[in-house]
Write a structure and sequence with these properties.
mainly beta; six-stranded antiparallel beta sheet; 7% helix; RmlC_Cupin_sf; Cupin_2; Cupin; HNL-like_cupin
Length: 137
């Protein structure tokens, strides 16, 4: 699989198995917290790493936003009603308040991003397997 070493040896860390949110992911993801929401800080920041084929379910940040900064590998992000967007190292994607979306690895590629997230997250259904399978890898 592509980019395994790049993702696992990332300067922002690989993290631990993301068991707390595993029910919202298809496949294994790993979480390395960088900034936790604290008093007078209403956002968190974490490095999230995805094994090949791992994506999260549709979700929205109903009272905030999310900024994704690709740090390794190749992956995808898609907003509801829009075409999927490929992410490569250095790419930045902003998801506005309340916009339903998903993100994760390509079928044959490890993927990592920093997620800067504000507000509550509402989780929805898994991404359609056929639609994901049809993405160019």
């Amino acid at each position: 699989m592509k980019f395994e070493k790049e993702v696992k040896e990332n300067v922002f860390g690989f993290g631990e198995a993301n068991e707390a949110y595993a029910q919202y992911f298809t496949g294994a993801s790993f979480l390395h917290g960088l900034v936790s929401p604290e008093e007078n800080i209403d956002w968190g920041m974490a490095q999230v790493s995805f094994e090949p084929g791992c994506i999260n379910h549709w979700h929205a940040h109903t009272t905030g936003y999310q900024v994704l900064l690709c740090t390794g590998g190749e992956g995808w992000v898609q907003e509801e009603g829009q075409e999927p967007v490929r992410m490569r190292p250095g790419d930045v994607y902003v998801v506005r308040r309340g916009v339903k979306h998903w993100h994760g690895a390509g079928k044959n590629s490890w993927f990592s991003h920093i997620a800067i997230t504000s507000g509550a997250t509402e989780w929805y259904e898994p991404v359609d397997e056929q639609a994901y399978a049809e993405l160019e890898d």
